[in-house]
Amino acid sequence: MASEFDLIDRYFKRPAPAGMLGVGDDCALFDVPAGMQVATSTDLLIEGRHFFADVDPRALGHKSLAVNVSDLAAMGARPIGCLLGLALPRADESWVAAFAQGFHAMADQAGCPLIGGDTTGNPGALAISVTVFGAVRPDAALRRAGARVGDDIWVSGTLGDADIAYRLMSGQMPADDALLARTRTALEWPQPRFTLGPALAGVAHAAIDISDGLLQDLGHILKASRVGARLYLDAMPVSAALADVAPARVRHAVLAGGDVYELCFTAPPDRAAAIRGIGDDCGVAVSRIGVVEAGGELAVLDADGTPLRDLPRGFDHFRSS
Amino acid sequence: MASEFDLIDRYFKRPAPAGMLGVGDDCALFDVPAGMQVATSTDLLIEGRHFFADVDPRALGHKSLAVNVSDLAAMGARPIGCLLGLALPRADESWVAAFAQGFHAMADQAGCPLIGGDTTGNPGALAISVTVFGAVRPDAALRRAGARVGDDIWVSGTLGDADIAYRLMSGQMPADDALLARTRTALEWPQPRFTLGPALAGVAHAAIDISDGLLQDLGHILKASRVGARLYLDAMPVSAALADVAPARVRHAVLAGGDVYELCFTAPPDRAAAIRGIGDDCGVAVSRIGVVEAGGELAVLDADGTPLRDLPRGFDHFRSS
Hints:
The structure is a homodimer of 321-residue chains. Chain A is an alpha+beta fold. The first copy, chain A, is 34% helix and 23% strand. Chain A is built from ten helices and eleven strands. Chain A has helices at residues 4-12, 57-75, 93-110, 161-169, 177-188, 196-200, 214-225, 247-256, 272-282, 317-320; strands at 28-30, 37-46, 78-88, 114-121, 127-136, 152-156, 206-209, 228-232, 263-267, 286-293, 298-301. In chain A, the strands form two sheets. A six-stranded mixed β-sheet of chain A has the order 7-9-6-10-8-11, sandwiched between helices. In chain A, strand 3, helix 3 (93-110) and strand 4 (114-121) form a beta-alpha-beta unit. In chain A, helix 4 packs across helix 5 (177-188). The first copy, chain A, starts with a helix and ends with a helix. Strand 2 of chain A pairs antiparallel with strand 1 of chain B.
């Protein structure tokens, strides 16, 4: 196997962007625009726990960064750069090359260049640590605690695909190649909303990304903001790929399916037109799915206005499997 | 086992320092002093690879952060805060409590509070990811490429202890409880030079911490700066704890032993008095051990001025074992 230093040089080292010192010193250095705070988030992903061992390494490289960029978006922060830690159990240079390709492509797309990291061998499972940095105006950051009674509740994109793909791949649903073909991209190549999130900063009150499922993640906003919510089931943006799936299965996927990386956010009703305009500018569908209410309850109403009973708990696919 | 969220709340969540948003949102937020750059570094540590599985968890918490704070020091950056990712294979709450205690104590000491992170279960080995942030004036950062011909070469503290402790604990040296008692602290509780490093910013030309051994790490400075060096063996600050160890063993430990986390730095000769003063102010011994020369060679001279042959390569204890 090529040494750690060789692999870094060959696949991860790139010229540092202007104003930055990148891979190859004790620290990476970066500038922060005047008046902005740094937003930062880190994830530690473990083979078998957070991804399948046989996943396409290019997709894994993409997703490792995408889920962290999604955290920046959920804070309303614009990406600055990222760090990558890799503990590699296998001497497989082509794997590293493909992983790096997927990672860099996501970094280029989001404007979040790799500026440092740590690569090591590991006798056990593959471990991936990603840390991202972004910049956000302190008064515009989309904190979980910002929701207010009367706010509309919105989600971006469509819901449900990733959950169905996961269930097909893990054998929890009977094999269906056509359905898997339609849904798999959502699970393996999630598109973080790195344009929409910063555009909502200062417009929306609160935001979160739906990594653990809509109800659970919205629940974090409600708890932090000390409010409740009412959601409308028939307002949910269900993926068209799920047209042939049993309604109960779809409902569960939409309300509780994790690994989505769409944004759930709240905003005053008088900003609805502005938010639709922002969605158009960013090329991302936005759907109004409910309202913030007083109290701590979370209710989901069906088309008749009847509250659903036994709401599914949110969960992380790989943790709960 | 208590859930991930419970463990975070109980052992890692603390009130965020002023101007920061800490654990519990999509991102942590922090301010950067005007005119400063952010310095950042990350490490991914794996059980069995970077530390013994039975290490005292309090020491492990300390060291996990200490080695990253050391990277900030080697850049001349003052700590701002840190992120922690933990993948836990065992349902051992007392282990987590002890780890958190050691981690927070180091964070308090260095002024580097934990502001966010990620905790997950892991079927395999314990994995620890730490990311640190610091602030440094762009023109004062101690980059590896800054050494100039004629600079003095300095190291802080003393060398050799950690290597001897590692060899005793791994069975590469015959058991010697008294010697282990004198050296073990250096291996398990390294003290990063978080005061000395920032004090040297703008005074020294280049710096690195000795995580992989003096010769290898100084070699990184020489390569990045396109210079060579001459070191004086009898100027090396050997730990007094090694007085009874065979000279060849000590020499190897001093020149090639990793896991030291002292700073090796270069500075113009006319700053020698200033550097001694900074060392005094910081309560850290500083020793002048050589000079930077033209060319790419690294020579170590014994007391007679004879260059040593077969210089030991630097290495990482746990990687090369």
